[in-house]
């Protein structure tokens, strides 16, 4: 950056005024020389938590869809912002562990996520036409675990305080927030289809700071206390082992206060995997392998 005060002293007044005008006019064009992208995402969503024995149970794969805006800062760095909607689910009925089968819990939840992050591209996309990339973001997401009763009706689980959240008898168990922060990160590959269209595929893991995506985390609370505070419906959905039918597992009775219900050792995760398609525009310096090297201020008056 030139020393403007020194430049002012060295130039006649009329020339200096022209320089100032040129700088003011050209500044926007220099910023415009970077690409913008707008596009969409279509894929699947998965969950990892207390209601699956494996890290991820593909039997409970659900859909996800989203939209994004990106800006290429240079050939390797891309800033991204996006909004994604997906659904996650899990159930004890497909587990093999007898204790989990007897617990007989299930859940489903929508996930709505807004994220802001950065991609690092390993190659120059305009030169190679393809590049792998990694990304990291910060996101705000919302969720709401529900389940189905024996008649197929939807039941909202948070309001039932199934693990004593918000009850005076369990002061350390605070009600969980339905809006949380997550840390999305992952990897993908993008392909330059034409000068304007970019296709990609990515997998993104979401580290959360809650263990209640599935409404399961700690231990059972006293049945009578839960009954008095939240009613019989809360008791019925805190433990559903009495609904078990068929197979080698016999129906159970509500466990004693303090019996393990979930595991708070690890927080829950969710994952979005899918395809992206983006339209890019701007760029100023033209398309092609040498685009970045040829970027320069244009459309500026001369004097």
From TrEMBL:
Residues 19-215 form the DUF6089 domain. InterPro entries: DUF6089 (IPR045743), OMP/PagP_B-barrel (IPR011250). Pfam families: DUF6089. This is DUF6089 domain-containing protein. It comes from Chitinophaga ginsengisoli.
